[in-house]
């Protein structure tokens, strides 16, 4: 199988550490991380697919405030228009919120709950979700797959090669609740990543972002760049021990390696080369700080179409921007959002999370703070995570609860009744429904659009849930009223297997 070791290049530096705050920082830093992360996502989403020199867009450039825009969903025969309001966030924040709901009162991430409830149900209200995460979510609706064994292969998508940032972008809640414990942060970050992504680039990117948030939360003064980077590297040195001590991760490693061809690198070898890449990117940050940000983007491949969504490159760019614009947080976000050709929404989410974790809410312009989607829900959730972190820091209890897979499937089937009725036109604005993950909600608005494919229309139903989250459920609907985004048939097959 091979051993995962620390990177030889990561020599022991002279031990210098700035003063640290108490194990659980003030609540405002949790609020700042959640709010500014979501704000970065909402600001960067409209520019995600713009290219340098772009002039063909419906809003003014550079983007410095929330703008309304329209996203085309689907292709020529299956496509419809989704009108995105100012301040509305993408799948990045949606999945971050889903991870937060998958953390129990003791601070443990429950991968079964995320994999068998949150992730499949997210398919029905996702906005901007990537192919990798959507493929992984659907695969989990089969008994052959599990959160610890989701080795999918579909057309050009291969779990072992899935190295993008779709896991890192949802990892903030895990970093917040484990601010007192790097080892648990690393373990739960690893769990979070492997539900959907199997390449070390995605897994290390997820851990790397979690460690960066940890450092931003716990360092008491503006850190010199080498000290902030060393804080992250100190966490990366602990990864091998965490893996060796966890039976579930050992089982996953065995499965990962079992399917290899003779000449393919095993996980430990691939991990080592990826770790070397990440450490190299991090250690070069100080040299690039005086230069144009695009130089560092280019250096890590964040402007290359093939690598711009890399789980390593995107996080490293955010760390670079955090250190460059630590005292100018608004300028840093503007740079992240308007560096066209990069993964703007995810980079800005990472950067906003780091800036908010260090500065708190004062880093956020009041207009953005007031206008981001579901502001009060984001604040409430940040406070809830802070309460969990405080309790976990003073507790010796380490037992995590689990989520029953069969019960989760029956919950989805129960919801499918309301889902079908919603798209069959049986609900009116103001009518209430109950969602397995989001709770009680009320329909705010409904929209129907024709499709070029005969016999189908697209329907979008906006629901405001009592918890404070807003979701736009969407489906292509046949003439008989059956929604194509239904999960019922897949769940029934899973229950029968």
TrEMBL record:
Cofactor: Mg(2+)
Keywords assigned: Hydrolase, Magnesium, Metal-binding
Co-factor binding details: Binds 2 magnesium ions per subunit.
Keyword Hydrolase: yes
Region (Disordered) residue spans: 1-27
Domain of life, per lineage: Bacteria
InterPro entries assigned: ADP-ribosylglycohydrolase, Ribosyl_crysJ1, Ribosyl_crysJ1_sf
Binding-site residues, Mg(2+): 90-92, 343, 345-346
GO molecular function, one term: metal ion binding
Pfam family of the protein (one): ADP_ribosyl_GH
Stated family: Belongs to the ADP-ribosylglycohydrolase family.
Name of protein: ADP-ribosylglycohydrolase
């Amino acid at each position: 199988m091979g051993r995962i070791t620390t990177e030889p290049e990561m020599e022991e530096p002279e031990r210098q550490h700035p003063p640290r705050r108490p194990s659980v920082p003030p609540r405002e830093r949790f609020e700042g991380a959640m709010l500014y992360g979501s704000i970065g996502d909402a600001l960067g989403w409209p520019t995600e697919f713009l290219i340098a020199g772009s002039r063909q867009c419906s809003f003014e450039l550079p983007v410095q405030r929330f703008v309304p825009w329209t996203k085309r969903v689907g292709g020529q025969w299956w496509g419809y228009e989704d009108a995105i309001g100012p301040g509305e966030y993408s799948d990045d924040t949606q999945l971050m919120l889903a991870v937060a709901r998958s953390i129990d009162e003791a601070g443990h991430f429950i991968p079964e709950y995320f994999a068998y409830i949150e992730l499949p149900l997210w398919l029905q209200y996702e906005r901007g979700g990537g192919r990798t995460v959507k493929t992984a979510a659907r695969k989990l609706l089969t008994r052959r797959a599990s959160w610890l064994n989701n080795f999918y292969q579909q057309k050009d998508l291969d779990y072992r090669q899935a190295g993008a940032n779709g896991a890192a972008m949802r990892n903030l809640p895990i970093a917040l609740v484990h601010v007192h414990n790097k080892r648990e942060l690393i373990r739960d970050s690893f769990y979070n990543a492997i539900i959907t992504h199997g390449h070390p680039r995605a897994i290390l990117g997820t851990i790397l972002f979690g460690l960066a948030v940890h450092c931003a939360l716990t360092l008491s003064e503006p850190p010199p760049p080498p000290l902030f980077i060393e804080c992250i590297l100190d966490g990366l040195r602990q990864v091998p021990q965490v893996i060796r001590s966890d039976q579930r991760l050992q089982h996953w490693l065995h499965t990962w390696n079992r399917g290899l061809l003779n000449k393919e690198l095993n996980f430990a070898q691939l991990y080592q080369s990826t770790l070397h890449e990440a450490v190299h990117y991090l250690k070069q940050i100080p040299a690039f700080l005086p230069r144009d940000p695009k130089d560092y983007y280019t250096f890590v491949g964040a402007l290359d179409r093939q690598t711009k969504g890399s789980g390593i490159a995107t996080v490293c760019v955010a760390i670079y921007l955090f250190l460059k614009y630590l005292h100018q947080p608004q300028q840093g976000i503007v740079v992240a959002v308007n560096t066209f050709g990069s993964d703007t929404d995810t980079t800005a989410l990472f950067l906003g999370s780091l800036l908010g974790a260090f500065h708190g809410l004062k880093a956020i312009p009041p207009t953005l703070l007031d206008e981001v989607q579901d502001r009060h829900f984001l604040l409430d959730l940040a406070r809830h995570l802070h309460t969990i972190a405080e309790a976990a820091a003073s507790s010796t209890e380490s037992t995590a609860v689990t989520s029953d897979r069969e019960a989760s499937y029956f919950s989805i089937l129960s919801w499918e009744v309301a889902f079908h009725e919603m798209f069959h036109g049986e609900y009116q604005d103001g009518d209430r429904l109950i969602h397995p993950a989001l709770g009680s909600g009320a329909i705010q608005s409904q929209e129907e659009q024709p499709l070029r494919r005969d016999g189908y229309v697209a329907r979008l139903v906006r629901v405001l849930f009592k918890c404070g989250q807003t979701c736009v459920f969407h489906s292509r609907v046949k003439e008989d009223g059956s929604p194509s985004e239904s999960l019922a048939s897949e769940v029934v097959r899973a229950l029968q297997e």
